Amino acid sequence: MTAEAVDAIAVNRVFHDHECVYYDERFAIRHDRWSGRRARREIEYALGRGLRAEEVVLDVGCGTGWYAAGLRRGCHDLPGLTVIGADLSAGMLASARAAGAAPLLQADAGRLPIATATVDVVVTRGVLHHLPSPKAAMAEWRRVLKPDGAVVMSSEPTPIVERHGEVLVRALLGVLRRPLTPEEDFWEVASMAANLHVFTPDEVADVARSAGFTRIALDTAGFAATLVLTASYVVHGRRPGLARLVPWRLAEAATRRVDAALFDRLLPAPWRHTVVGVLRP
User: Fold this and answer.
1) Measured over all CA atoms, what is the biggest interatomic distance in the chain, rounded to whole angstroms?
2) Which of 75, 78, 182, 208 shows the smallest number of beta carbons within 10 Å?
């Protein structure tokens, strides 16, 4: 592993150990039955089938537990379903544990302490762009998958989301007008350093093929909902009292429905904000 990769891993570990304290609030996440049902729907829609009893699901980069804890709440009808959460950050794992996730592993996404060909479904949500070597991570996910398994990917940023997000952030900062303290400025810089990549679906597909996947179905999705979450993140950081007066969760849910009904259908693929899809061996 190169020195640059080691540094990138260290930055991500330190930043996410800090971010775990406020991550759910800023991204409008509540760990309840509703989010558990939504987590299950996201995965089953991507797979094109339902999750099954006795399957093993591995949530790589589980963060505060959107999938790792959500599936435990949303899949009570599937006896024997095992959902394993893995994350580099001890802080994120503590948050996931508090949300109900178990079992949990502290592990690098590219070096998983899991036996070969033992996982039915790997799920990842906004993980690949934090990793210094997407190819090495995908090869590791391919290793742990059973021959008929699948990787479900979501929320990987596309190049255009940075441009749209920059316009929105500049506008919000002009309105909010509160300078950061030195400590806040440090963590804002760290958040930028932790985001290593943006992707087009073709770029992700090329990496996936080089990692051993042969059946690849990727697309882009999302527009309005990502802007709402960007606004939530910024307003919470600059004006937390004001931010807590805004129903961000309802706004994100509403704009996600608008995305599904309108923007995901009508916007050109390069204008949508995230890469989503499924990789199969």
Assistant:
1) 54
2) 182
Domain containing 24 — which CATH number? Answer: 3.40.50.150
Does a structural domain hold residue 249? no
Q: What is the pTM of this model?
A: 0.94
Q: What is the DSSP string of the chain?
A: --HHHHHHHHHHHHHHHHHTTTHHHHTT---SHHHHHHHHHHHHHHHTS---TT-EEEEET-TTTTTTTHHHHH-TTSTT-EEEEEES-HHHHHHHHHTT--SEEE-BTTB--S-TT-EEEEEEES-GGG-S-HHHHHHHHHHHEEEEEEEEEEEEEPHHHHHHHHHHHHHHHHHH--PPPHHHHHHHHHHHHH------HHHHHHHHHHTT--EEEEEEE-SHHHHHHHHHHHHHHH-HHHHTTS-HHHHHHHHHHHIIIIIHHHS-GGGSSEEEEEEE-
**27 is a domain residue:** yes
What is the domain extent for residue 90? Answer: 3-158+184-221+270-280
Q: In this predicted model, what pLDDT tens digit does every residue of 92-107 receive, in sequence order?
A: 999 999 999 999 999 9
Q: What digits encode the pLDDT tens for the residues 228-240?
A: 999 999 999 999 9
Query: Is the per-residue pLDDT at 185 higher than 60?
Result: yes
Instruction: Give the tens place of pLDDT for each residue, 126-184.
Output: 999 999 999 999 999 999 999 999 999 999 999 999 999 999 999 999 999 888 888 88
pLDDT at 10: 84
Q: How many domains does the chain have?
A: 1
The answer as to whether 170 is a domain residue is no
